[in-house]
Amino acid sequence: MPAETAMRRGHILVVDDNRVNRLKLKRLLEQQEHEVALAEDGRQALSLLAERPFDVVLLDLIMPEMDGFTVLQTIRADASLRDIVVIIISTLDEMESIVRCIQMGAEDYLPKPFDPVLLRARLETSLEKKKLRDLERAYLQQELLLRQNEKLATLGKLSAGVAHELNNPAAAAYSSSANLVTTIERLQQAQLRLDTYGFSETQKTELSALLQRSASRVAEPLVLTSLSRSDLQDEVEQWLIDQGIENSWEYAPELVGLGFDLTALRRLAMIFSKAQLPAVMAWVSAAFTLYALAQEINDSTGRIVAIVKALKSYTYMDQSPAQLVDVREGLLSTLTMLAHKLKGGVTVHCNFAPDLPRITVYGSELNQVWTNLIDNAVAAMAGKGELNLRTHQEGDWLVIEVEDNGPGIPEAVQAKIFDPFFTTKAPGEGTGLGLNIAHNIIVQKHGGQLTVKSQPGQTRFVTRLPISR
């Protein structure tokens, strides 16, 4: 069979209660090398449509039990059938009914008696339209699949980073909570030892001051170099040994953390007796450790809460797809999601205009754009460099800039940077879809603009979003 004929060949269902008409159409269609099935009423037609696929239905209007209007309405209401081409078979005196069918979704009509030339022309046109619609649907489904795959790939990268970011504070909180029980026991034992002594009012005032000092020092830790801290710990430990205080190696780091040097320790030795001093040292070091562990748990769990909040903000979880959004919040939550990639040596500078209006956008998809642009910038700088994020307003546009000081994009490929499957990365490192999807999200979905300007040492992606849509 010639290729042209094969392309025009279709699967046709003829629906007509007149046997002569059915057979005549069958013969004409088979002469044109179509595959033909026959139905004598609407119910039989719908049964055949449910069993196998057809390209075109030639549908008579006036039939018993179920007329052509009902069959057409049923076809158009069924998602699995609505793309089938329906051509009405009618006489010219049914023109009002033909117009009604066209309005209901019929593609064309064929007047009776049937003209073979007109039949061929109408079928070829309808089959070509059907073929184009099928190709368009297949393209859209493929594009949707590619977008979803790219989104899943981005989510996979982010989830690994978020898991790492959550693991550090979670592990710190777990370790601190485990040490908390031991420290409470230490503090209780030290308190019991203190209770065996009778303290003067001056000594009680000093104990209260030591407790306050422990709390405040945890909030504002003492800043020392590693060498200075080590030397001071050695001096404090030796002083404690000289005073006959046991476990001096354990108390020394905590006392140094409290800000005690030899001068401060000698002052304590003047306030408390030699018999009281060991109990005081044990008590104040345990109190300081308890405050420090509580602060560590608070900081760690606070970090976890911040990451989870950023994650919810990034994905716009529990929110409608389109809403009023502050793009600065989206950029900041994206930076939180990508924190693991920025720690290696990327310095981030944020210059956000303070009076930016909120705009109605698809927040989650917009954050996907920021993720792609920032991730590409970090990759271009090989994880070390300066990343600049800027936002400002230009008339009716909101402008967002993502700039890095990497090697730049060669001028020869800048025009292709948003093309699908184009990538400058090594094989296996990129799909070539990230910037294409980002461009489609900005341009097609939000009516905005996404452009790039690049030279060695500076690459800037500029996004423009309309303030009113």
Task: Give a quick set of tags describing it.
469 residues; alpha/beta; Rossmann fold; Heat Shock Protein 90; 5-stranded parallel sheet; 5-stranded mixed sheet; elongated; disordered N terminus
What is the domain total for the residues? Answer: 3
Radius of gyration: 39 Å
How would you write the strand order of the largest sheet?
Answer: 2-1-3-4-5
Proportion in helices:
55-70%
CATH architecture of the largest domain: 2-Layer Sandwich
Q: What is the terminal separation in angstroms? A: 54 Å
The backbone outline, from C-alpha atoms, is elongated
Percent of residues in beta strands: 15-25%
The strand count comes to 12
Give a written overview of the molecule:
With 469 residues, the chain is α/β, with parallel strands linked by helices. It folds into 3 domains: 112 residues, 3-Layer(aba) Sandwich (Rossmann fold); 143 residues, no CATH class; 151 residues, Heat Shock Protein 90 (2-Layer Sandwich). 58% of the residues lie in helices and 16% in strands. The protein is built from 15 helices and 12 strands. A 5-stranded parallel sheet has the order 2-1-3-4-5, sandwiched between helices. A 5-stranded mixed sheet has the order 7-9-10-12-11. A two-stranded antiparallel sheet has the order 6-8. The longest helix has 80 residues. The protein is elongated. The N terminus is likely disordered.
Structure, briefly:
The protein is of the alpha/beta class and 469 residues long.
Layout of secondary structure:
Elements lengths: L2 H6 L2 E5 L3 H13 L3 E5 L2 H10 L4 E5 L7 H10 L7 E6 L4 H10 L3 E4 L4 H80 L5 H19 L6 H17 L5 H11 L3 H10 L5 H39 L6 E4 L1 H11 L1 H4 L3 E7 L6 E4 H18 L4 E10 L2 E8 L29 H12 L3 E7 L2 E9 L3
Parallel strand pairs: 1-2, 1-3, 3-4, 4-5, 7-9
Antiparallel strand pairs: 6-8, 9-10, 10-12, 11-12
